[in-house]
Structures are given as structure tokens and as C-alpha cells.
Design a protein that fits this description.
five-stranded antiparallel beta sheet; DUF2116 family Zn-ribbon domain-containing protein; alpha+beta
């Protein structure tokens, strides 16, 4: 039985369970499958990535305080986050993956990092 590469159509030589003729074809196929489907999705992912980098840069110690103006000057967009955490005390933390922030009074924010295991 002849098997052909799903990316380029070349004949596959080698192991019986081999799916692609080369690493280049395997990478090209997976890149096509995993790419963001449209500009809207890509733009949101870029904003989330930027917010994550800003939080990680400001919160090196795992818990710190900063101002809204400092975050905004770095390009932080408060409308994009990945999850919310409501505490028993009624506080709401906004998270971008494991990096989080909570608004305090006078435009200050506490930055925290969730321990991930």
C-alpha cells in the first residue's frame, strides 16, 4: 500500500506509522492547522500577550503594587483578560493567565501571580 504525504503528496518512505515525508512537511501542516483562523482572533491574542508581558515585567517578585498610569503608559489594555477570581471578601482579581491584578483606591493596583503546578 502506497502512502502519500498529506502536505505535498510525495510518497512516504519509512516506518509504517509515519504520516509525513519530512519534518518540513510535518511543520508546515501543523502550522496551517494551528494558525489563528482570522484577524479578529489574532488581534485579541496579541493584546493578551502584550498584557501578559506587561504584568510579568512589573511583577517580578510575585506580588507588588503599581499605578494605572504606569500600566497604561506601557500599553496595557484593561478590557482584555483571561479570567476573573472573586474572593470570599468580595474582591475581584482579573487574570491574564497566571498574572493577576486587582484595583485598589487612588488608581493603584495590586499585582499577583498564581502558583501553577
Amino acid at each position: 500500500m502506497t502512502r502519500n504525504c498529506p502536505e505535498c503528496g510525495e510518497k512516504i518512505v519509512g516506518r509504517e506509522d509515519k504520516k509525513f515525508c519530512s519534518d518540513a512537511c510535518r511543520n508546515a501542516w501543523n502550522n496551517k492547522i494551528n494558525k489563528d483562523s482570522n484577524n479578529f482572533m489574532r488581534n485579541i491574542n496579541n493584546k493578551l500577550r502584550k498584557n501578559y508581558r506587561i504584568l510579568a515585567e512589573l511583577n517580578v517578585e510575585g506580588k507588588t503594587k503599581t499605578t494605572r498610569s504606569k500600566m497604561m503608559a506601557m500599553g496595557f489594555d484593561f478590557t482584555y483578560f483571561t479570567s476573573l477570581l472573586n474572593t470570599k471578601t468580595g474582591n475581584t482579581y482579573y487574570f491574564v493567565y497566571e498574572q493577576g491584578y486587582m484595583p485598589l483606591e487612588n488608581d493603584y493596583f495590586i499585582l499577583v501571580r498564581k502558583e501553577i503546578s
